[in-house]
Amino acid sequence: MVKANVLSKIRGFSGVNRPIYVLAGLAFLISVATLAKFNYITPLRFSGRFCNNHGSFDGDNYILGSQMRKTIESAIFKIHQEMDDLKVLEANSSAPPSDSSASGSMFRHVAFLADVLSLIQSVHMELPSFEEVDHPLKQRNGDPGEHFMREEIKKYIKIKPNRLGKQNFMGANGTFTSIGHACFAMKKDVEEYMDYDVGEICNDDWRLAQKLMVHGCDPLPRRRCFSRAPQLYYKPFPINESLWKLPDNRNVRWGQYKCKNFTCLASNTTARKGFFKCTDCFNLTHHELPRWVNRGELDPETNQTADFSIQEVLEIKPGEIRIGLDFSVGTGTFAARMRESNVTIVTATINLGAPFNEMISLRGLVPLYLTVNQRLPFFDSTLDVIHTTRFLDGWIDLILLDFVLFDWDRVLRPGGLLWIDSFFCLKEDLGDYMEAFKALRYRRHKWVVVPKRDKDDKEVFFSAVLEKPPRPFR
Ligand SMILES: *[C@@H]1O[C@H](CO)[C@@H](O)[C@H](O)[C@H]1NC(C)=O
Ligand SMILES: *[C@@H]1O[C@H](CO)[C@@H](O)[C@H](O)[C@H]1NC(C)=O
Ligand SMILES: *[C@@H]1O[C@H](CO)[C@@H](O)[C@H](O)[C@H]1NC(C)=O
Ligand SMILES: *[C@@H]1O[C@H](CO)[C@@H](O)[C@H](O)[C@H]1NC(C)=O
Ligand SMILES: *[C@@H]1O[C@H](CO)[C@@H](O)[C@H](O)[C@H]1NC(C)=O
Ligand SMILES: *[C@@H]1O[C@H](CO)[C@@H](O)[C@H](O)[C@H]1NC(C)=O
Ligand SMILES: *[C@@H]1O[C@H](CO)[C@@H](O)[C@H](O)[C@H]1NC(C)=O
Ligand SMILES: *[C@@H]1O[C@H](CO)[C@@H](O)[C@H](O)[C@H]1NC(C)=O
């Protein structure tokens, strides 16, 4: 029945409707041509862009290109179907050889469709096949190492099968080393970083490494060269002295820092010595000593302070807080003070312009060299406390903040404390940021907003101590 209807429809086309049919075909052709002009379908240009430049692949183009390919494929499929239908109709209608003009126009339609089809197919052929391109993220060929020239990085990325050909004790058939996906976009820097002789001394290039990490090439590949150490390493001070004493200058490689000794970093007369958010963090005697011991200065208007003392926070959960993470920029003073309360804190920081990691370790505390790009290297529900200050501030993207907060939530144990310490941002942004913190639905032990009394009063401090609720769901 349906086919019969189609037949009568097509018979109708032979007269008035034919121009419409042709027009529709033309419209389709024009739209394909426009797509082709649009940016990159011109095959040579596109494949040039994509193939010559494996390093800086463009995810959007990839998606757009493969969508276009799918659209064209479905158009081709539809035309094929239509032609098949017409052929069937033609066969049936020719049984009674009556209306020769109708079968003639049918033939022309089929010829026209075949014409359109061949045009579209020629475009389709010239489209690069996205499925076959060795896309760094798809790794269909199983060897992302092919994107790099340097042998060491190829070797590093290559999957290492187990020697005995069986699963190892971790339940894997091999070892799968990984690097951050942004490494592929920073090919030049990665290859410079991996340019060394196995077993020799590495270049003095931790800054290059840190730049790579900060830009998402994180984790970085490991290397098989010996990292540079201070020329002569003197034994560190014993722990009863090291916490509050500037370390020995000789235990740091100063080459890549502005200051060349700790006195310079600690002095309040040296300008631009390191990270602007932490210019006084090396001044242990004046700046660091009072931190988290007393409550900070009260704001005259609100009678509140954004600086809580460690003691008042620990009193929220007496005896329960034993281990935790400080995700801040600093020299480890928070961990030093917590140590005095028998709480073990690891301090996550990178070296922003000054030897923060070296300083923390020379004080006898544990530095964790970690960027904000990475999932925390702790298992779920393991830490009693997370403290953060001077790091996540008004600069941070709200979506990123969300991911960070949920990751922190993951590693905090039920009943653990999240201490947001003097988060600052523009007044008008405060609402948005507070929403992010509220979304955790933590129990609020402390929650204050204090105007930031410097510059032009446009910023506010926000501090809070929040408790992760138990989530007794299965
Ligand atoms: C065409 O003819 C075949 C057999 O001759 C028949 O089975 C089929 O249903 C017919 N189709 C139409 C659309 O008439
Ligand atoms: C691991 O090896 C076993 C047998 O050697 C094989 O059956 C299995 O599919 C392999 N698993 C993976 C993930 O390759
Ligand atoms: C630190 O401890 C050592 C012994 O463990 C002791 O000899 C030294 O005097 C102590 N230093 C201080 C400043 O207490
Ligand atoms: C520390 O470095 C500053 C300049 O960076 C220099 O003026 C000063 O003499 C140095 N002090 C010591 C003790 O080396
Ligand atoms: C620390 O800062 C105080 C006051 O700002 C200053 O007097 C002192 O000299 C600084 N400490 C060092 C080691 O420079
Ligand atoms: C450094 O600290 C001393 C003592 O507190 C102070 O007199 C001096 O003004 C400070 N210098 C700077 C540049 O802040
Ligand atoms: C701040 O607190 C002090 C003492 O606790 C009190 O005397 C003062 O009136 C308070 N000020 C305001 C603005 O509440
Ligand atoms: C820390 O532990 C030591 C030894 O167990 C104990 O003597 C000290 O009182 C503890 N300090 C605090 C602040 O709890």
UniProtKB/TrEMBL annotation:
Protein name from the UniProt record: Methyltransferase type 11 domain-containing protein
SUPFAM superfamilies given in the database record: S-adenosyl-L-methionine-dependent methyltransferases
| One Gene Ontology biological process | methylation
Q: Which UniProt keywords apply?
A: Glycoprotein, Membrane, Methyltransferase, Signal-anchor, Transferase, Transmembrane, Transmembrane helix
Matching Gene3D superfamilies, A to Z? Vaccinia Virus protein VP39
Keyword check for Methyltransferase: yes
In what way does this protein cross or attach to the membrane?
Single-pass membrane protein; Single-pass type II membrane protein
Name where it mostly resides: membrane
Membrane spanning residue stretches: 20-40
Q: Which Pfam families match?
A: Methyltransf_29
Keyword Transcription regulation set for record: no
Q: Where in the cell is it found?
A: Endomembrane system; Membrane
GO CC terms in record: endomembrane system; membrane
| Molecular functions (GO terms) | methyltransferase activity
Q: What family, per the record? A: Belongs to the methyltransferase superfamily.
